Amino acid sequence: MENISDIKIEPLQKSQYVKPYRMHFKQNGVRRIWDLITLHESVFIVIFNTERRKLVCVKQFRPAVYCNELAKEDGGLEERNYEDASISGAEGCTLEWCAGIVDKNIDVKEIAQAEVLEECGYKVPISKFEKIISCRAGVGVSGEMQTGFYVEVDDSMKVSEGGGLASEGEMIDVIELSIEDAKKMLERPFVNSPSGHLKMHLAL
Asked: What range(s) does the Nudix hydrolase domain occupy (predicted)?
């Protein structure tokens, strides 16, 4: 997962996931411009294994996180090959809740159920999923809707190792955290996790 090589940065031509725009508008009579992107809506799932009293999280390489570190090291991201990149692939690996984009015309709870199976290997009845909240993510640049769920699992529901869909290039490690370990994360000055991951730890 952390063996990253043959890096090339180039302009975005066309993407099925990200669409950049520039919005021109007036706010209280003042003309403004804002650059933004549109993204799919998404779901995240807080998974708790009641038998082992562990939170079930995922670890994966996030290219955007890696490029952010690459830009800091290089004084800005350039359109070129980075064969000499000195940043370890570990810098781009984040600890997160199980999550996924809403890219099918089905209920978001079904999306959440499928992600738990694909990423973490638990086959969970849909009735077990409890909605936490729907909120906005990336409000400065994308503003997409994100819906969170909570689900309790046990070892009898474990039907595979998870790891994501290899057909989509996913490489995901399933990580279990005790509640105590999760709280200790909050004592660190920096963690390589999305802010939503930390906020849910606070609730726990």
From this structure: 38-204
Whole-model pTM: value is 0.92
pLDDT digits (tens, 9 = 90+) for 87-130: 899 999 999 999 999 999 999 999 999 999 999 999 999 999 99
Going by the DSSP 8-state scheme, the letter that residue 118 receives in this structure is I
User: Would residue 70 be called left, alpha or beta, if left means φ above 0 and alpha means ψ between -120 and 50 degrees?
Assistant: alpha
The secondary structure of 40-91 as a DSSP string is --EEEEEEEETTTTEEEEEEEE-HHHHHHHHHHHHTS--SSB-TT--S-GGG
Longest Cα–Cα distance of the chain, Å, equals: 61
Cα 11 to Cα 87: distance, rounded to the nearest angstrom: 21
* Of 129, 131, 140, 65, residue with least CA distance to 96: 65
| CATH class of the domain at 40-62+96-203 | alpha beta
Structure tokens at 84: 């000499």
Domain residue spans of the chain: 40-62+96-203
